[in-house]
Amino acid sequence: MMPNDDRRRTLRKRVEHWSQRLAVRPSLVRVQRMTRKWGSCSTSGTITLATDLADQEAGFQDFVIAHELLHLRVPNHGKLFKALLAVHVPDWRKYHLPRGAAGCESSCAPPENR
């Protein structure tokens, strides 16, 4: 497991990569301890990611980061959101669980579950 500063740096670099790829710019990126979600996007454009997301596989990190950044374009989980997610993260469904499954309120969980 990486030290927290390294985890934050790693996740911020991935957010920068995905921000450019998706042509979006969050107003702020936070990386902090989160126990119920892997990430969130506020209406003010703040992206918050769980520090321990950096310990998960790269594909899952990409899913969570792309998911949250896409909310800067589409605020809901409707057809447009899912279509955009499928374009950018084609295997997103392997990381997605129904809302509330395995106690995950953010509608996603890593392959091992938290």
TrEMBL record:
Domain of life: Bacteria
Pfam families in UniProt: YgjP-like (PF01863)
Sequence ranges assigned to domain YgjP-like metallopeptidase in this UniProt record: 8-95
PANTHER family named in the record: UNCHARACTERIZED PROTEIN YGJP (PTHR30399), UTP PYROPHOSPHATASE (PTHR30399:SF1)
Name of this chain's protein: M48 family metallopeptidase
